[in-house]
């Protein structure tokens, strides 16, 4: 049975300097590095006695989180560009004010699967397809114990894929997690996909 630990990357410069997220490629803050060290300690306890493989998005804030975790766990990191956050197109590297002025208009207030927020970026449909393709590839490997360091939107869509969401269900639910959080996916004895832990930040306290 598969056991997948999801790590949302730790605090990044874009969280504090008014920059957009998405494909804006910013490093961790000092606090983010401290958070990653706490995650590493937690994972060293959780992963004890099991053979894990570590995947990471190639964006700097995720890769640095994975590198700090790996300094403790000593696993081979598999860097995978399909684990990136949603492609923010021309908004990458821009301020939030710039993004507000250049965002494509929406048809209404409801979730739109084919809405492309920024030119040259992804729609939610395209994003979900990318994440789904990535997870199908990762879970087809022989590895049963997997750690994935990724981003908030990607983490939510990994969970949706694991729970077998159909495309139309993406309009009904979202799984917002926090920087530096841990979540865990698994399977039970009935063969059902399970969300055993979500958005746990207890390791960041004190």
TrEMBL record:
It holds the Pfam family His_Phos_1. SUPFAM superfamilies: Phosphoglycerate mutase-like (SSF53254). InterPro entries: His_Pase_superF_clade-1, His_PPase_superfam, PGM_Phosphatase. PANTHER family: BROAD-SPECIFICITY PHOSPHATASE YOR283W-RELATED, HISTIDINE PHOSPHATASE FAMILY PROTEIN-RELATED. This is Histidine phosphatase family protein.
């Amino acid at each position: 049975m598969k056991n997948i630990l999801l790590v949302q990357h730790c605090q990044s410069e874009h969280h504090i300097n008014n920059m957009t997220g998405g494909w804006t490629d910013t490093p961790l803050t000092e606090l983010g590095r401290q958070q990653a060290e706490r995650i590493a300690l937690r994972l060293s306890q959780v992963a004890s006695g099991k053979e894990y493989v570590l995947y990471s998005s190639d964006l700097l804030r995720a890769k640095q989180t994975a590198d700090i975790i790996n300094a403790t766990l000593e696993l081979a990191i598999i860097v995978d560009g399909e684990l990136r956050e949603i492609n923010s197109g021309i908004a990458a590297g821009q301020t939030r004010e710039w993004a507000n002025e250049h965002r494509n208009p929406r048809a209404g207030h409801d979730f739109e699967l084919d809405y492309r927020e920024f030119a040259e970026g992804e729609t939610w449909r395209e994003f979900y397809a990318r994440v789904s393709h990535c997870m199908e590839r990762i879970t087809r490997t022989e590895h049963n114990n997997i750690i994935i360091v990724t981003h908030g939107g990607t983490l939510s869509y990994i969970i949706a894929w694991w729970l077998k969401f159909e495309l139309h269900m993406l309009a009904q639910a979202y799984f917002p997690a926090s920087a530096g959080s841990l979540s865990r996916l698994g399977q039970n004895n009935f063969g059902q996909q399970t969300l055993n832990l979500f958005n746990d930040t207890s390791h960041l306290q004190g």
